[in-house]
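sry for the spam today, last one i promise. C-alpha cells for design, 260 residues
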C-alpha cells in the first residue's frame, strides 16, 4: 500500500489472493518500488518449482516492481483476463510462472512500461501471450506457451509500437481456427522486434493460417533461431519483409525449407 513504498515482501510457500481486499475482482496493485518474492521455508534462498508461493488473481505493476519466483493463476469468474499489467517502467518478472498449463490467462502480460524484463519464467495463455504498447520489452531464458481450442485468432506476442527482444527463449502458439490465424509474433505501429537464439513454433489444426512472423509495420530481425510452422495454410512470414539472418532454420510441416 502507499504506506510501504520500496518494500520487499517475502512469502515462503502457501497460496494467497492477489486482488483487492474483500474478495473483489480488481488486481493487486503494487506501488512504486514494491516487490513480491517467494522464498524457501526458512527464507534463506529463492524458492523454486512447487515450493514457490502461489498467488490467485492478478497484479498491476506501477514501476520499479519485481515479481520473483512466484506462481500466478487466474480465479475463474473473477480474474479471467490479464495476469500482469505493467503501467510504467523498470519492472521485472523472474523465475515465475504466469498461469500454468492447466490454468491459463486469456491475456497473460500487458506492457505499457519501458525496460520491462521477463527472465527465466514461463507464460501460459489462451488468446494472447504478451502485448506491448509503445514500450520496450525483453524476454530471456523464458517460455511462452499459448494453447487455444476455440475458433478465434491468437497471438504469442503482439507488438504495437516500441521494441521487443526475444533471447534464448521459446514461443509456442497452438491455434484451432478455420477463420483466423495463429501467429507467433505480430507487429503494428512501427515496432522493432529482435529474435536471437530462440525457437518459435506455430500450428493451427484447422484451416486458418499458421504464421510465425507477421510484420504489418516496422522491422523483425531473426538470428540463429528455429522457426517452425504446421498447418493447412502455413507461413514462415507474411506482410512486410522480415530479416532472417545466419544460422536460422525454417521448417514447414516437418520439412526444412529456405527461409524467406
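last one done:
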Amino acid at each position: 500500500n502507499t504506506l510501504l513504498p520500496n518494500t520487499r515482501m517475502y512469502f515462503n510457500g502457501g497460496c494467497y489472493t492477489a486482488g483487492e481486499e474483500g474478495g473483489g475482482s480488481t488486481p493487486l496493485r503494487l506501488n512504486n518500488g514494491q516487490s513480491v518474492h517467494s522464498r524457501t521455508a526458512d527464507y534463506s534462498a529463492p524458492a523454486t518449482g512447487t515450493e514457490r508461493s502461489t498467488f490467485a488473481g492478478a497484479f498491476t505493476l506501477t514501476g520499479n516492481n519485481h515479481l520473483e519466483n512466484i506462481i500466478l493463476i487466474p480465479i475463474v469468474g473473477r480474474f479471467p483476463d490479464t495476469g500482469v499489467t505493467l503501467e510504467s517502467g523498470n519492472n521485472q518478472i523472474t523465475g515465475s510462472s504466469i498461469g500454468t498449463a492447466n490454468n491459463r490467462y486469456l491475456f497473460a502480460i500487458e506492457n505499457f512500461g519501458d525496460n520491462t524484463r521477463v527472465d527465466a519464467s514461463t507464460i501460459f495463455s489462451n488468446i494472447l501471450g504478451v502485448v506491448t504498447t509503445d514500450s520496450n520489452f525483453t524476454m530471456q531464458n523464458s517460455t511462452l506457451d499459448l494453447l487455444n481450442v476455440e475458433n478465434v485468432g491468437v497471438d504469442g506476442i503482439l507488438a504495437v509500437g516500441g521494441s521487443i527482444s526475444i533471447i534464448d527463449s521459446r514461443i509456442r502458439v497452438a491455434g484451432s481456427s478455420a477463420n483466423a490465424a495463429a501467429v507467433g509474433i505480430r507487429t503494428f505501429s512501427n515496432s522493432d522486434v529482435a529474435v536471437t537464439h530462440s525457437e518459435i513454433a506455430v500450428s493451427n489444426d484447422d484451416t486458418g493460417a499458421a504464421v510465425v512472423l507477421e510484420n504489418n509495420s516496422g522491422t523483425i530481425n531473426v538470428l540463429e533461431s528455429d522457426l517452425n510452422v504446421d498447418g493447412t495454410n502455413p507461413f514462415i512470414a507474411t506482410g512486410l519483409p522480415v530479416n532472417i539472418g545466419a544460422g536460422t532454420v525454417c521448417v514447414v510441416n516437418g520439412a526444412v525449407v529456405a527461409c524467406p
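The chain is about 0% helix and 60% strand. ok im logging off now
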